[in-house]
Specification:
The structure is a homodimer of 193-residue chains. Helices cover 78% and strands 0% of the residues of chain A. Chain A has 193 residues and is mainly α. The radius of gyration of chain A is 20 Å and the shape is elongated. The first copy, chain A, binds a DNA duplex (30 and 30 nucleotides) through helix 1 and helix 3. Chains A, B: This is TetR/AcrR family transcriptional regulator.
Amino acid sequence: MQGKNTPVPNADRSAAMRSRLIACARKLFVANGYAETSTPEIVREAKVTRGALYHHFKDKQDLFCAVVTAEAEALAKSVEKEALAAGQDAMSAGSLAFFQAMSKPGRARLLLIDGPAVLGTQEMARIDAGGGRRTLRDGLSSAASGLEPAELDALADALSAAYDRAALAIAEGHDPDPYVRAMSRLIGSLKSG
Amino acid sequence: MQGKNTPVPNADRSAAMRSRLIACARKLFVANGYAETSTPEIVREAKVTRGALYHHFKDKQDLFCAVVTAEAEALAKSVEKEALAAGQDAMSAGSLAFFQAMSKPGRARLLLIDGPAVLGTQEMARIDAGGGRRTLRDGLSSAASGLEPAELDALADALSAAYDRAALAIAEGHDPDPYVRAMSRLIGSLKSG
DNA sequence: TCAATAAACATGCAGGTTGTATGTATGCAA
DNA sequence: TTGCATACATACAACCTGCATGTTTATTGA
């Protein structure tokens, strides 16, 4: 009858703590932004101490990076799944899947606003690796043929920014319809043009 | 022979101090980013005290807002001037003028990265009022006719984000050529489509 | 010309934040 | 069970922000 409950393996405890911190941090980062969220707030929310946070993450930015990375992975997974389900016309199916996945509260802010500002566009590009831009590039190369690679890359980059802006506008409460139509017009005109 | 030099009018002194603080703040914000720039650093650079800063600006964010506003005005002025000089084909002339004006060091970071993150997209839209998106919308309405207003707005918004992304890529050292061509292809295909 | 007033700026302080150094308890391996 | 590494808590120093309070300088009205 000692206070010794079944011992929790270290690996499990660690993983649980990590995801707990990431979840609580995400909640506050989304609600108040990166700068306005303090580490004391985060650990209060998670009901632990700052020691735990700094044990698992190098610093506040490292924790934010983990949050953003998880978000980017969730986005990619969602889009991939949706786009795969819809067989033909991968372009417009992927487009809709992207908008839908991006409408999850906070996601746009994390990936499109705070992420680039805090981590830099370069690091964000690394995190996104194989994500949206890559898919877009592949789609474009088959749709609009006969561009040299450099221009194809630039076009994919620019268009991906247009998608991002549309997703952000929708996330901020604008009517999705005009944006969805505008983007498909943009893509469509590239094909025929 | 008293130490009384000609008295400096208050208005002049104030204006000088204001622009001095804005210039020094711009330099540091551009070099190190908003969060990593402290008000002590700024006033050290300007060779004054924090008292002066907080006399002229409500807080650090207010100073940053002034920096961004000045930058947006300088950009708009540059583009307007260039675009006006080139007579016909306002669209591609304006495009080139935009890329050129946006290539001024630090401008892209201020207006496209830190600005939206620190001030919010809404405030940034207010600052940009009558700037790029408006011009783009007007250009599009004559080029691609027969869209309803809502879709036109969305299209202008998305395309303006594409321009921004291109400008940012160029500012980060990418070859401008592919981006310039990609954007003109995008605009061009809208016309014919 | 000369007080009186207000504006422009400097200084000092309180509260809060970050990152680290140090302390403690718990799992784990020999 | 003994020793060590891991997981976490506590304590501390440095820093920053914003305000409250001085001090100097221009401006105004008589």
